[in-house]
Fold these 2 entries.
Entry 1:
Amino acid sequence: MPDWLYTYFGEVIKPLITAKEDRRLSMPPTFAARDTVAQSSPSFWIHPPEPAILLSRRQFGPTALYRPRIFLWLPHFLVEKLYCPKCKTNVLEKNGALPPRRIFDMQDCFYLIAWGYYCRKGCQLHFTGWGHAILESLPPYLRLAFPAILSYRSGLSHNVMAQLRVGNQHKMGPSGIHSLLTEMHTLHFNRLHLQYLEAIFEVISQREANGKDSQETLHAYISTKFPAFGNFGDPQCYAGFVPSKRYLAEMMNKAIEQDENDANQHTACLVPDQIAIDDSHKASCVESFTTYLING
């Protein structure tokens, strides 16, 4: 994780989820926003600033354009009581914020922010806010709002998982989806880079037209006045990354395994004329009976 992202989490995101009111954690402003024309609607998401608006205000800080979307998964604010998934009767206590979890989406990445929980009065087990146990204990409408399928350290958004499923059905496996993600992620970065350069060019053109530019060359002016935008894979700049083909294949298999019970139930509900009947057992039975007659 690049240094600028650590700073962003520490200075912007941390105060949102640790603010207190009467010695108790207060609900994040994005949860409490009113659904009116003048104000933003309630949302789990913290969206980055619009690049075009920042550039129109002549704010040429590349790290502001790098900022990812943030998904605040704080279910304890959305249910009356968050019970322990194992004990069922004891209420969980908050046990500190978890490290941000990077999730790969179709054209960029976003980060999950959640709390850890502890069953102090019961089984004394620890639970992660995005863990399977907590998700299964939530009401279905709330559980369906969770935006990703997680691996050990990362995860894929439901949009990417849908692409994997559809691609697999139409003979476009993880290799094709990997190429698609690579194209979409780099295209998103290139678009941001182009906006940045076009805004700089506009500023320089205006200054040259007004006779206020004393630099001899355009290159000298840019190198002394504007920071470099960086490369897609630079770990201290944009830090772009696309999951490997093997990772995509493993996540697709994981999603299929999670749906195994539903698939079996669906197959059991099909009418007989939609089921391919296997009669191979009859041949083996006839062969066995014939052998028995020959051998007496």
Note: The chain has two domains: 3-157, 174-274.
Entry 2:
Amino acid sequence: MTDRFDACLAEVLRQEGGYADNPDDPGGATNMGITRKTLAGWRKVTPWTPLPKTAVQQLTETEAAAIYKEQYWQPVAGGDLPAGLDLAVFDFAVHSGPQRAVMTLQKLTGVPADGIVGPVTLAGIKQKIALMGLAGLIDALCDKRLDFLTNLAAFAVFGSGWHKRVAVIRAAALAAAGTISTDNRRETMTLISGYKTYIVAAAMLLAGVAQVLGIDIPSMEGHSAGQLILEAFAVIFLRREIKTGF
């Protein structure tokens, strides 16, 4: 889908930035993530070395988009992937190659890792999402991507930036999928559970104080004021479950 390609490309371009020629980067002269060698191949310049670096500097966003669509988006079948997963796979492909991105996804979904996205791979993706959810698959793919990057020799130089990139792409992918990560969901539920505990404790404390003041609360019948207050403070300070006969 054109809209999804445009949205994913915009995120990728934000990560790639403009022109750079870092001597530590094996890609050499690069603009919007398009290396000199990639641009030479696109323009059918053989060998690629005669293509001047100025050609990379003058690369337009329109030409860059065409390269991304034909050489990265289409090979990973971005248009056939669920929103969010398309971005995670696409950016992985741009950063480390389409075949690696696809094969990593295929291994996660339990289908033959041939680097080609076809009906079998798409069916495997659907089955995996049914089992672990879209967020779970996006998280797993990003985790595997980080595992791969961590073992590269250039990690010592670029590791911090790579970690940040994967984190940003993960968050954007999960947002596009309309969900949150498994870890974030777990943290959210823990936070909610904690607040519920304190709310219960506060209610018990108020009920105990009310009984001291001579106000009867039907739902608290059978519990003395002292017991309610003691249990409330126990919950607040010890964060333990309220136990009968505390």
Note: Residues 181-197, 238-246 have pLDDT under 50 and may be disordered.
